[in-house]
Amino acid sequence: MALSGLEIYKLLPQTNCKDCDYPTCLAFAMKLAAKQASLSDCPHVSEEAKAKLEAASAPPITLVEIKAEGGEVKVGNETVVFRHEKTFYHKPGLFWRLRDTEDLEELKRKVADADAYHVDYVGIDLYLDGFAIEAVSGDPETFKNAISAILSISKKPLILIASTSDIAKAGLEGSDGSRPLLYAADGENWETMVEVAKQGDVPLAVRADTLDELADLTQKIKAAGVEEMVLDPGVHHYLDSLQQLTTLRRLALKKTFRPLGYPIITFPGANEEVDETLLAAEHITKYGGLIVLEEFNPASLYALLVLRQNIYTDPQKPIQVQPGVYEINSPDENSPLMVTTNFSITYFSIANEVDGSGWPGWLLVTDAEGMSVLTAWAAGKFDAERIAKDAKTFNVEEKVSHRKLIIPGHVAVLSGELEEEMPGWEIMVGPREAVDINSYLKAMWTK
Fold first, then answer.
1. In whole angstroms, what separates CA 183 from the centre of its chain?
2. pLDDT exceeding 70 applies to what percent of the chain?
3. Are residues 265 and 411 in the same domain?
């Protein structure tokens, strides 16, 4: 069982030396208890204390990293059951399952299409995280060639699905230069799969029909020398997914049950009786770490990526854009100048409306700590002083020959204060909603 902050503090040197980058040993102890710091940050802790503090310092869910030349996927290290308690840290990776029995040229074509898939969501680039390649052929050389074909097109991380150690070893040879996840060890092959995982220094997925069997296997595998594991509880329906994955999460976080303190891998398309997209969405929210899809459908993938982004955005830190002056439709010195906050949804709502209208314009984005217009105004983060300061910082006077600034209609009350802060400027009160910008500019501005 994990130790409390005070129990940890009693085992620390209590010198308040600050070598751990915390002001006191007590502060460091509290961070350790909350799984937000590493015991290795304290260079003065004794070996005896280290042994006692292992349970408190180790994360309740082990971090697993899958890497390739074109990126990496990290899962694990989560500390809460619900995101509003703090936040979720590592987004689940979305992978597309392919088979080594496909024609290599057709396989390359599929990979190229999926690898090129990128969509912009409020300034965030969303894309498929990687590929899972399954050794359906049962032939090591065929498996190896399929992996090489994939890597010749894409540099995304891989999951290697192999049932025997010789095929798994061939897969690792084909993926040389990357760090894939090896899937999967079970009650029959775990010893040989462990040896392959150790030789390749790669994480290993563990598959079993019950949680008791999973816990037994992970303890054996850890004792054999593999630390990074991913759990496959074999869930393929809505209800069993909710029950099993929630149970795994609560056992790891609430009970600090180390044998099941690992990320989870799921295959929501393995059961044809359920809707893959719907079950994948459930796994994103409760509590999949790696989600392997049977189908590459850009429309449904976009929905899953947006859901994942929303769930894994820190609720205490709204999505923001960089403050500054943004150009829309190649504006000149006579184009209108508008101002808003750096809350990303607000920014993109305005930018998209102006862009779609065909109006060239300048958009001054002020630093409001990621809050929307009304929220920032109520919190004192979007006021006349701050707007005037950012206008000066970003040299708006050099960009426009006129002296007119359009403010959001919701904060019309700022107009008088802004005129005092920006002498010589005319403050125009714009519409309340972004959708009305086009009609407002037609009525109030001459091109």
1. 23
2. 98
3. no
